[in-house]
């Protein structure tokens, strides 16, 4: 088997909480706490979790905006902290991030062209004509009128801006795309457009992708492998067919069942939320035992004290729960 | 002739109708001279104890509709026409003083963002008490009793502790639940929820909707829920009202609309929702193009540039909302009469 494009081993990112006169560390926030996974070439892995579970921090760490507290990240078999300076630069070119909020990730006083040009200039493309050519091509690829490159971000609609963000990620011909909830800020009719478009890209350029979402329905079409994240840990990880047909972890089941759906609406089914009312645990003081025990309806004494280890259910399907 | 008109009028005022919006028009007069017709002739009724779901994309005028009902449209917006009959009184004819007596006591509005709807410097208890005292003088004991009642409605039991805390000490989902409790404190007849779950995660979203359902069951009020999420409206509402570019394109009882949508836009919206139950298909069916520019709406049907069934007539003439079956209104020249969303016959 070839070397996976991205491999993350036991990654941890903790933030200290400092208080008082001497900035003494009083507690630690366990935002990302021991995550391991691989993305093979051309594979799309979806990371699904609710707000506050640490998925954005994980992305920032992977792209190198944050240094991990513990654990290692490998890009094409090379460990981040052992790379030479040039390799780091090359890696940053090959990994591109698509942000969630398209308005705040484009410079308001830059035209679209200036925004898209920046990475090219940064990597030493001096020929202005060639840069323009690449930009026109990329805009065409994402289905936007090349004339848009002279406009400012606020003159575009949300869906168009999101395409610009994607186009900007593509100008450098990346091999791995990290998409941080690329469609959750869009209208329903545009969500489908952008999702279809990402799938086209994936096929055309055999891109690998880490797709972050808070909703299992969204990643159904696009993901090959799905990881369910909760409070900094992966609770279940499986090929996407397994997640939809054979979910084992109670949290995954809740995510599948509690999503409002049209079919349930037609059948006049009510909500049956199998969940204790409460909030996701505070990352500064996670509960002892299983992280999900504060909201799980199956939780018993063992769940309150013993941390569940991952259990292999079928090849590549892991779940962390005592109740399987 | 006059007699005829009287008979007709009597028929339209049904006893079980709580709110009737007739030909509502809210325009925004931009400094540049442009006029944005955010809401342009909208009609709907809300029956007592029922839930109406208003669905539309951003910019379709759904929030402006709810703000018009509360009469809190911001400048440069203006309600330029129509009637809003609430309990047989036209809200648009009331004085500001009379209107403020209705706001919060008979009609409540829940906003999208629970963070900005609270005063950060006051405890939850103080804000609940304030919400009560605005409309009625009461003894401390009486108010406290009512606060406990409404907090229980939304599933919050440790009220003593909650009342002493500040809004920032809770998560967004919890705050939204407290806000629902607060809006119920005066037993309003109508609760308008404007995208109550949009910024929240899946499980929290389900909790909020469950809270709304519980509240409704206990208090028996009517609800208007405004959202762009077809999932939310389909599990919660009795009737659905689809808006596009400031107008209603389709309104119908829920089940009929979801199974047999008649307007091409409704069909497109339903098809572009990613379904959990669906087989893994290659592509979602999306609506082509973008939502229209509200300043330069196309001549004819506003949806015509994006419609896959467009005909020459659609480009010329604006379709009027008309009844095609009992209780079903569609604004389309060529409604899709034999389309259905699912082959599953058990859904009938």
In short:
With 324 residues, chain A is an alpha/beta fold. Helices cover 32% and strands 25% of the residues of chain A. The longest helix of chain A has 18 residues, at 188-205.
Count of runs of 4 or more consecutive helical residues of chain A: 11
Shape of chain A: globular
Counting DSSP E segments of at least 2 residues, the number of strands of chain A comes to 12
In N-to-C order, the SSE pattern of chain A is EEEHEEHEHHHEHEHEEHHHHEE
Strand order of the largest sheet of chain A: 6-7-8-3-9-10-12-11
CATH topology of the largest domain in chain B: Rossmann fold
What is the CATH homology-level superfamily of the largest domain in chain B? Answer: P-loop containing nucleotide triphosphate hydrolases
Distance between the termini of chain B: 43 Å
Please describe the topology of this protein:
The complex is a heterodimer of chains A (324) and B (348).
Chain A: E1 6-19, E2 24-39, E3 44-48, H1 55-63, E4 70-75, E5 78-79, H2 85-94, E6 95-98, H3 112-122, H4 128-141, H5 158-170, E7 176-180, H6 188-205, E8 208-213, H7 216-219, E9 225-230, E10 233-239, H8 240-245, H9 250-258, H10 262-266, H11 301-305, E11 310-314, E12 317-320
Parallel strand pairs in A: 3-8, 3-9, 6-7, 7-8
Antiparallel strand pairs in A: 1-2, 1-4, 4-5, 9-10, 10-12, 11-12
Helix pairs in contact in A: 3-5, 4-5
Chain B: H1 2-12, E1 17-29, E2 35-47, E3 51-55, H2 62-70, E4 77-86, E5 89-90, H3 96-102, E6 107-110, H4 124-133, H5 140-153, H6 159-164, H7 172-183, E7 190-194, H8 202-219, E8 222-227, H9 230-236, E9 239-244, E10 247-253, H10 254-259, H11 264-272, H12 312-316, E11 322-325, E12 328-330
Parallel strand pairs in B: 3-8, 3-9, 6-7, 7-8
Antiparallel strand pairs in B: 1-2, 1-4, 4-5, 9-10, 10-12, 11-12
Helix pairs in contact in B: 5-7, 7-8
């Amino acid at each position: 088997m070839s070397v996976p494009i991205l491999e993350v081993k036991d990654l941890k990112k903790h933030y200290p909480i400092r208080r008082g006169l001497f900035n003494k560390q009083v507690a630690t926030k366990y935002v990302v706490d021991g995550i391991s996974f691989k993305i093979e070439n051309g594979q799309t892995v979806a990371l699904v979790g609710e707000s506050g579970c640490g998925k954005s921090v994980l992305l920032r760490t992977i792209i190198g905006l944050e240094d991990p507290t513990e654990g290692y990240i490998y890009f094409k078999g090379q460990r981040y902290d052992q790379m030479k300076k040039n390799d780091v630069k090359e890696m940053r070119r090959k990994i591109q991030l698509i942000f969630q909020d398209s308005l705040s990730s484009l410079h308001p006083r830059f035209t679209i062209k200036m925004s898209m040009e920046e990475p090219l200039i940064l990597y030493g493309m001096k020929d202005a004509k060639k840069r323009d050519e690449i930009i026109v091509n990329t805009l065409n690829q994402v289905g936007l009128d090349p004339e848009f490159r002279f406009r400012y971000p606020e003159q575009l609609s949300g869906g168009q801006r999101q395409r610009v963000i994607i186009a900007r990620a593509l100008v450098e011909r990346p091999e791995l795309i990290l998409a941080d909830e690329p469609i959750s800020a869009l209208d329903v009719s545009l969500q489908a457009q952008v999702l279809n478009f990402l799938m086209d890209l994936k096929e055309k350029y055999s891109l690998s992708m880490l797709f972050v979402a808070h909703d299992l329905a969204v990643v159904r079409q696009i993901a090959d492998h799905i990881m369910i994240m909760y409070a900094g840990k992966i609770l279940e990880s499986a090929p996407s067919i397994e997640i939809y047909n054979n979910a084992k972890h109670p949290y995954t089941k809740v995510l599948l069942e509690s999503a409002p759906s049209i079919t349930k609406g037609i059948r006049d089914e009510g909500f049956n939320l199998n969940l204790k009312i409460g909030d996701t645990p505070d990352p500064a003081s996670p509960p002892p035992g299983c992280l999900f025990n504060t909201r799980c309806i199956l939780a018993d004494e063992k769940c309150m004290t013993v941390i569940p280890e991952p259990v292999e259910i079928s090849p590549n399907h892991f779940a962390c729960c005592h109740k399987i | 002739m006059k007699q005829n008109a009287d008979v007709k009028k009597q028929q339209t005022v049904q006893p079980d109708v709580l709110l009737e919006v007739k030909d509502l028009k809210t325009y925004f007069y931009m400094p540049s001279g442009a006029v944005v017709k955010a809401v342009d002739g909208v009609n709907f009724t809300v029956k007592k104890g029922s839930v109406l779901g208003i669905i539309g994309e951003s910019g379709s005028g759904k929030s402006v509709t709810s703000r018009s009902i509360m009469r809190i449209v911001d400048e440069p917006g203006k309600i330029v026409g129509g009637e809003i009959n609430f309990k047989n009184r036209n809200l648009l004819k009331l004085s500001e003083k009379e209107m403020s007596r209705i706001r919060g006591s008979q009609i409540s509005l829940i906003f999208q963002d629970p963070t900005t709807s609270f005063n950060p410097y006051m405890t939850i208890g103080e804000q609940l008490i304030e919400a009560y005292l605005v409309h009625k003088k009461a003894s401390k004991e009486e108010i406290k009793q009512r606060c406990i009642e409404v907090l229980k409605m939304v599933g919050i039991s440790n009220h003593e502790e909650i009342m002493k805390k500040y809004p920032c000490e809770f998560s967004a989902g919890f705050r939204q639940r407290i806000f629902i409790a607060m809006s119920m404190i005066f037993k309003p007849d109508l609760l308008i929820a404007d995208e109550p779950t949009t910024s929240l995660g899946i499980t929290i979203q389900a909790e909020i909707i469950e809270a709304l359902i519980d509240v409704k069951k206990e208090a028996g009020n009517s609800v208007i829920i405004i959202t762009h999420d077809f999932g939310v409206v389909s599990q919660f509402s009795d009737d659905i009202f689809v808006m596009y570019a400031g107008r209603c394109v389709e309104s119908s009882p829920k089940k009929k609309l979801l199974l047999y949508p008649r307007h091409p836009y409704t069909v497109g919206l339903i098809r572009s929702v990613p379904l959990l139950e669906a087989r893994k298909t290659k592509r979602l069916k999306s609506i082509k193009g973008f939502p229209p520019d509200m300043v330069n709406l196309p001549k004819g049907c506003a949806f015509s540039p994006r419609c896959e069934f467009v005909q020459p007539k659609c480009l010329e003439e604006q379709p009027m909302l008309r009844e095609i079956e009992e209780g079903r209104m569609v604004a389309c020249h060529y409604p899709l009469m034999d389309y259905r969303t699912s082959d599953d016959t058990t859904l009938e």
